[in-house]
Amino acid sequence: MAMYQSKDIEVYADKKWLEQEAVKEREQEKKSALVGFAKRLFRHKGAVIGGIIIILFIFIAVFAPWLTSYSYDKPDISAVLMAPCREHIFGTDEFGRDIFTRIVYGARISLKVAIIAVAFSLVIGTVLGAIAGYYGGVVDYIITSITDMAWSFPTTLLAIAFIAALGTGLQNVIIAIVLASWSGYCRVVRGQFLSIKQREFIEAARVLGMSDARIIFRHIFPNSLTPVIVMATLELPKAIVIEASLSFLGLGAQPPEPSWGAILDSGRGLLDQAPWISLFPGIMIMLVVLGFNLFGDALRDVLDPNS
Amino acid sequence: MSAKILEVKNLKKYFPLKTNLLGREKEFVKAVDGIDFHINYGEILGLVGESGCGKSTTGRTVLRLLEPTEGRIIFEGQDITHLKKNKLRSVYKHMQLVFQDPFASLNPRKKVGNAIDEVLYVHGMKDEAQRRETVRELFDMVGLRGEEDKYPHEFSGGQRQRVVIARALAVNPKLIICDEPVSALDVSIQAQIINLLVSLKNRLGLSYLFISHDLRVVKYMSDRVAVMYLGRIVEIAPADELFKNPAHPYSRALLSVVSVLGSGKNKKKIILEGEVPNPVNPPSGCRFRTRCKYATGQCSEIEPQFKCIGNGHFVSCHLY
User: Fold this and answer.
1) For the domain bounded by B4-94+171-316, which CATH number is listed?
2) Is the ipTM of this complex over 0.85?
3) B166: chain A residues, CB-CB within 8 Å
4) pTM surpassing 0.80?
5) Cβ–Cβ of B96/A30 closer than 8 Å?
6) What are the pLDDT digits (tens) for A18-49?
């Protein structure tokens, strides 16, 4: 009898303990969705590797003047076409300019172009997509037609066409990238709006007398952000590549501006004598694009509620 | 006492199915095809029928969430059928909706307290302290004291439905359209929500349009019941009367199921033959004739009109 009792007590204690654990767990869950998000992100290998590359890239771009003692545009006849060595770790080009310095400053161009271009195309695409998805009808028809036309061209080709019309230069590169890539956001946001608009809580908001603007910005938009964020992260490397491509073709950054694409192009004729001129900017473009793509994919995995 | 809070006249809602080359609609799903009913102040009108008969469409069209194809909706003596969007807001102060699925009808990214706070703000309560107090009262009223700071996913289905009810009450409505408010919930929770709705009705003097396919719930809740079949109301009667003496053959079949389940009496279940006809091409004459065992030649030719067979009991059938 006594034995049973003690066992019962044990079971009871067990139960009590389990309950307490459950309560603790729930409280921890409540603490913050953000903490959980960060945790999952840190556990994701792609996110960590991509994140490190992105942070390094941003660090280089921001602190460029402190990372090198050379100038990115002053020629130095005493150091023409030097192979990588202790003084010039990435070598020098045909004007004796330090490739490492040019790449470090080039990071600024890449980052600036990518961020500005993505920000503008994000805003334009989101606003148009939201209008098309929410109002539907003729407005949707017009916006969708334009979007589909823009979407059907390869982005780089479209950007080249715009540059041809606008003229060369970094500012026009940004405009060209925006004009060539807003349609992607528009499609994604329109799709999100179409599906979320149908949900009952939007109907509820309408019955509760809320204005269209409030429903769009306070109710639909916050619920459609996830894919837009992921998309923006994946569009950044695309913008970097387009900028590099245009500069490679001589349509973007003009000499002596040290865009990675331009540096790559400047070494093209000297590949057999000085391969390092083209090699290092190429590696940098690859690394940064890889970093953003890894991070963007990781973000998609982590933000997807089904994973 | 018998003043009408809501009157619906010849309401039709057609959904276009196909459009021809010129963009004109050729075929329609006749979801609601000419229905008339009214709700008195302080009354619960039950609306029953099988899935797809147009119950929910009726509810949404009355609220102008769907634009009516034809007919008139008169709320508190005001014709709201063609009211402009910005004027509808004042109507929504008095007429609210409780949804079927409490998982879908709350914004997942908003704390429930904030969701209701927003409603109060939109309807002109600008003082924050006053709003907080009102939110607290509303949560108290639906039995969720002190749960304002949670997200919808932290609640169970029944609790969420309470939040949805609190949100509907925030604007101080006179009429609430309940669209299958309990059918997504466990049976044990259903009773709680139903009792909450009834007690709120008594306390606040509300009227309900109670849409449901659950006949037991409707029987318990409603003062009067309307039976819908294929976009039409076939019978309206006081609840007791309808459940005692269903007149329309469809109502009889529908209600025979409840009698068997509920009272323990050994009535026979009437099993309907055949399928519900396609609402794109409903049968001519009486819509129920294809499944009705009393159908005669007259039924396929002449559409039956509503007839009063006494005691506020209306039926549209050639048998009477």
Assistant:
1) 3.40.50.300
2) no
3) none
4) no
5) no
6) 666 666 655 555 556 677 788 888 888 999 99
